């Protein structure tokens, strides 16, 4: 039960901070449009940003990032050793990022076609 609370707490905090800094602020959203993450999705999954709703993409990306970080934080809470936490965190973080970004890129590539 503690792990579920940790996940929900981390997810909520990260999502709220990200959306308040990046999406809700006009200046933050303008920077988001030219950020490395958006360029990555544009090049890796060949998404045309003019054909998708960039605001909904920003929300989806913030949900994805919040899930990745919250899940990683929850899993590393199981271990006591700092070195083991770092190793497990890295081992979980990289494949989870690749998987979740692949799913998000595929979804928005399909939405672009409609």
Give the helix/strand layout.
Elements: H1 2-23, H2 26-33, H3 36-44, H4 54-76, H5 82-113
Helix pairs in contact: 1-4, 4-5
Model description:
With 114 residues, this protein is an all-alpha fold. Helix content is 82%, strand content 0%. The protein has helices at residues 2-23, 26-33, 36-44, 54-76, 82-113. It starts with a helix and ends with a helix. The relative contact order is 0.15.
**How much beta, percentage-wise?**
under 5%
Helical region count?
A: 5
Mean pLDDT metric: 89
Distance between the termini: 42 Å
Notable characteristics:
single chain, 114 residues, mainly alpha, 5 helices, 0% strand
Summarize this structure briefly.
With 114 residues, the chain is mainly alpha-helical. It is built from five helices and no strands.
